[in-house]
Amino acid sequence: MAVGRFFTFGLCALAFASPGAFANDEIFVSNYYGNFIHVYPRTANGDVAPSRTIFGLSQPHDLGIDLVHRELFVPNNLPSVFAPQVTVFDLDAGTPGPGDTPKRVIAGAATLLDRPAALLVDSVHGELYVANDVDPADAAILVFALGASGNAAPVRILKGAQTGLGGPIGMALDLVHNELVVVNYKVTAGGSITVYPRTFQGNVAPLRTIQGSLTGFNRPQALALDLAHNELLLANSFFDNTISLGEILVFPRTGSGNIASTRKITGPNTGLCNPIGMTFDRVHDELVITNAAVNIVCDPSVVVHARAGTGNVDPVRAIGPGPASDLNSPEGAAVATTVDCADPLVADGTPCSPDPCTTGGVCTNDVCQNGTPLTVPGEVQSMAASPDRETYSWSATANATRYDVVRGVLAGLPAGPGDDDEVCFANVSGTSFSDPTVPDTNSGFWYLARGENACGAGTYGTESIGSPRVTGTCP
What confidence tens digit (pLDDT) does each residue in 307-342 have? Predict the structure, then answer.
């Protein structure tokens, strides 16, 4: 007769990065017609399902993240569900997660919000920029206090005939040269890029304008700024036509007038299809680009390109297209990942980790400081088997980010040194796993678990005589 499985324990855990260490490492994507935000692992590739979703929106366009307070800002462009507003969520919101209820909402007559589309977070100066995507006569950039809530009036406004605004749909902030860069698509010659002093007020003319037939603009949308290479990167969407699937254009940061791009990412291999949203991941030197795919020859997706890419180059990776990724007119994109404290856009007080074995640091004067050293996890406790002897669980171990589980046959006890009678289940992300394998008749299995983190692996516990359990089955 077959006997049931047996199990034992005595193990280590891995260290979980604290919120201050940016355990997120995620891409946030707003879906305009789906009225939701999908969140994916930053390195997701293929038709990958989102890890969580934030619902309860009204045609969300752009996205902004405040890493100091761990908040996600969302402009709701059209009143298909509710009046124009900016909703603010906890960065970890979503299903599964803390829920979809916003922390606060900016809405009301005093806000002057009218088709809010582009959004920009300035954590350094504590300000929130919102662009009203309307025709030139009423187009405006509104600046709110970053913690604004309710029917709050903007603290500054850029609006008027001299501004050159018209359908402002993308923005980038230059805190080195104290400038705001805006892309407009409801103006002549296919679109424009206009640049203003960061502290603008009123009907202010741009410092510089890129506009004209040489630019190749055709409904340009998102904008990114690369200060390290002194470049502006633009998603040229070709929205609502079939002339082109779109392209990424690159201009000098100080460019002005009717000028051509210095390079471009374009062609069928690029995976571009009406690119609407784009964000620059400075830490990994990558462009995350959303494809709204209005053109019937392609489907919605998110593609990631190397920032220095040029010509008909393949993307580094892509999310979708496909049913699992569940993209529905993706438009805005934002990345939450590790930070470079020397980045001008990173404010003092932003959580950081000076090295993989330290957590809880904060950016101070361009340096990550005051972190707490992590230690390897201690022994795993309370390992138990389910009644069917297929699922095994244990208590979460402090500082553990993943676990290794070793299975062996009873005849092979004690554990180790790591022979053919043992099997490794490596990098288990949670505190349980399943093993449907049935032991031979008149035999049984034992199980051990240990925790790991970036600083190393914990132990498998100790034997009854007090010596440590050692096996090389899991490297």
Answer: 999 999 999 999 999 999 999 999 999 999 988 999
Question: pLDDT tier at 9 (50, 70, 90 boundaries)?
Answer: very low
Two tokens at 267? 């062609």
110 Cβ neighbours under 8 A, 6+ residues apart: 151, 152, 153
Q: What domains are there in the chain, each with its CATH number?
A: 11-15+374-457 (2.60.40), 23-337 (2.130.10.10)
Contacts of 467 (CB under 8 A, 6+ apart): none
Alpha-carbon distance of 439 to 441, in angstroms, equals 7
Torsion on CA atoms 278, 283, 284, 289, rounded to nearest 10: 0
Instruction: Tally Cβ neighbours within 10 Å of residue 293.
Output: 23
Radius of gyration, alpha carbons of the chain:
26
Q: Exposed e or buried b for every residue in 410-420, given b needs 16+ CB within 10 A?
A: beeeebbebee
Q: Measure the CA–CA gap between 31 and 24, rounded to whole angstroms.
A: 20
Count how many Cα atoms sit within 13 Å of the Cα of residue 384 in the half-sphere of its side chain: 5
The b/e string for 436-452 (b: 16+ C-beta within 10 A; e otherwise) is eeebeeeebbbbbbbbb
Q: Is the peptide bond before 356 cis (omega within 30 degrees of 0)?
A: no
Q: Tens digits of per-residue pLDDT, 266-306?
A: 999 999 999 999 999 999 999 999 999 877 778 999 999 99
CA gap 429, 366 in Å, rounded = 33
Closest CA to 407 of 440, 437, 448, 441: 448
- pLDDT of amino acid 441: 87
Dihedral sign computed on CA atoms, order 4, 10, 16, 18: positive
End-to-end Cα distance, the chain: 35
**pLDDT of amino acid 110:** 98
- Computed over every residue of the chain, the mean pLDDT equals 90
Residue 412 to residue 446: CA distance in whole angstroms: 9
pLDDT, residue 397, reads: 92
pLDDT digits (tens, 9 = 90+) for 131-188: 999 999 999 999 999 999 999 999 999 999 999 999 999 999 999 999 999 999 999 9
Separation of alpha carbons 447 and 391, rounded Å: 11
Find out whether 377 and 13 touch, Cβ atoms under 8 Å: yes
